[in-house]
Amino acid sequence: MQSSEKNKKEVRIGLLGASGYTGAEIVRLLANHPYFGITLMTADRKAGQSMGSVFPHLITQDLPTMVSVKDADFSSVDAVFCCLPHGTTQEIIKGLPRHLKIVDLSADFRLRDIAEYEEWYGQPHSASDLQLVFPIIQKEAVYGLTEISREDVKNARLVANPGCYPTSIQLPLVPLIKAKLIEHRNIIIDSKSGVSGAGRGAKEANLYSEIAEGIYSYGVTKHRHVPEIEQGLSDAAQSKINVSFTPHLMPMIRGMQSTIYIEMSQGVTVEDLYQQLRKSYEVHLI
Ligand SMILES: NC(=O)C1=CN([C@@H]2O[C@H](COP(=O)(O)OP(=O)(O)OC[C@H]3O[C@@H](n4cnc5c(N)ncnc54)[C@H](OP(=O)(O)O)[C@@H]3O)[C@@H](O)[C@H]2O)C=CC1
Ligand SMILES: CC(=O)N[C@@H](CCC(=O)OP(=O)(O)O)C(=O)O
Q: Which residue ranges does the record assign to the Semialdehyde dehydrogenase NAD-binding domain (predicted)?
């Protein structure tokens, strides 16, 4: 399909941070989508390159050349996916034209409490005037765990896409908490992730020789996803929930497993938990 035909599709998409792992995933998901066409792509170090040269498996896709965000023209864009590092994202989002719908994959708009963001992410909001701008944008953000807040997501201007570990933990626990099947205390979460979760940027700790044939825990007691997990579970419970969460890095590229230990409410059986999860995520086949 030619770019000109793509422009006729209903929703014109800008992809910010297209040259990273999540950018490539968005391209894959949108490639044959009937309503979306990609009209703008940005990169940082790889600005000026084609997507096919960065990700050879996408070479057959007819995509615009990646440009730097500062050179991006949003006049032919209706919605953007932000696939940028957290911290960087706030500054870029606050400068985007108001007509754009935004899906942000970073962590910048997930936490309602800005003080909590600064504490767990170990950085103030980066632009000097952002303290003024951030609360306004933050109020517009909907936490985009679709299964839990589908209607809010539909109408949002800014969707804060949940983190990987928090997704794997909230999807099973939120329905059980709402149905009062589990206790709010002593929730212990043991999660395992593949290495692509750390992004494509080169880091010593993610070298093959560091990762292969081993497993290690990291961020013990202080991983930045703790407040996000607690925010979602506390919302479901309508009271404060604290969790013990330990992530592990596995010698694999993709994938995630979270094993969650809970106390069942009095009289509840394991079968009750399964029934509730089946009911909550029932797929109606036509
Ligand atoms: N990897 C995963 O499984 C998941 C990641 N996320 C989150 O999504 C976001 C993107 O992650 P991921 O794709 O893995 O990251 P990558 O490191 O793979 O890609 C980051 C992208 O942002 C660009 N970029 C980096 N710095 C800047 C900057 N200062 N200004 C403009 N563009 C910049 C990079 O350009 P270039 O390549 O040219 O340097 C690249 O396109 C992160 O916030 C991450 O936390 C969310 C869910 C899952
Ligand atoms: C293996 C690894 O490093 N994982 C990342 C989380 C990846 C993820 O998808 O979460 P975000 O959307 O918040 O980036 C980490 O532990 O920080």
A: 12-156
Q: Are 211 and 149 in contact (CB under 8 A)?
A: no
pLDDT at 129 over 80: no
For the segment 212-221, what is each residue's pLDDT rounded down to a tens digit? 999 999 999 9
Q: Which of 225, 228, 252 to mutate to test the pocket of ligand 2 (most atoms within 8 A of CB)?
A: 225
Tell which residue, 160, 187, 174, has the closest CA to residue 238.
174
Calculate how far, in angstroms, residue 195's C-alpha sits from the geometric centre of ligand 2.
9
Q: What is the Å distance from ligand 2's center to 193 Cα?
A: 9
Residue 164 among the catalytic residues? yes
Assign domain 164-280 to its CATH architecture.
Answer: 2-Layer Sandwich (3.30)
Pick the atom of ligand 1 nearest to 44's CA: 38
For the chain, which residues make up each domain, given as ranges? 3-160, 164-280
3-160: CATH superfamily: NAD(P)-binding Rossmann-like Domain (3.40.50.720)
**Is any ligand 2 atom within 6 A of the Cβ of residue 90?**
no
At 206 the three-state DSSP class reads: helix
Whether residue 104 is predicted with pLDDT greater than 70 in this model: the reply is: yes
